[in-house]
Amino acid sequence: xxxxxxxxxxxxxSAVVLSCLVAGLATPASADAIxxxxxxxxxxxxxxxxxxxxxxxxSRIKLGETTKVTGSLxxxxxxxxxxxxxGEPIVVQRLAGNVWVDVASGxxxxxxxxxxxxxFSLRASLTLRxxxxxxxxxxxxxxxxxxxxxx
Length: 151
Known about the structure:
This is Neocarzinostatin family protein. Residues 1-31 form the signal peptide. Keywords: Signal. By secondary structure, this protein is an alpha+beta fold. It has two domains: 1-45; 50-150, Sandwich (Immunoglobulin-like), CATH 2.60.40. Helix content is 28%, strand content 39%. It has one helix spanning 3-44; strands at 50-56, 60-61, 66-75, 89-96, 99-107, 113-119, 124-132, 141-142, 146-150. The longest helix is centred in the first third of the chain and has 42 residues, at 3-44.
């Protein structure tokens, strides 16, 4: 054999050895990757759906004036639904372009009601919503949008 053909044979042998090593190492890792997905799916089936109703106390405010965003968080789970325990996170967001931007955050009361104060330092017609991020107990949810005019 000439030197170039020996070089090719060595490269081919290295490729075979490397692929065997990778195949041997990949099997346990892929099994580990499947296990968390299955447990996460089983855990996710215990989550409950929420409905958020929200609005502002004043639909038109002056620059720097404060208004309250009030509403309620209710579970829509049917017969097996449990009462909201309170302390669930609530975020008031405004639409900026095509992105929702956080304005204020807080938690709901034990009865599911919430009230957050907001004020703005820009004159604009704003589109707002209230958002509940996903938690261990509940799926994420958002209210219908509502308008606020800052003059």
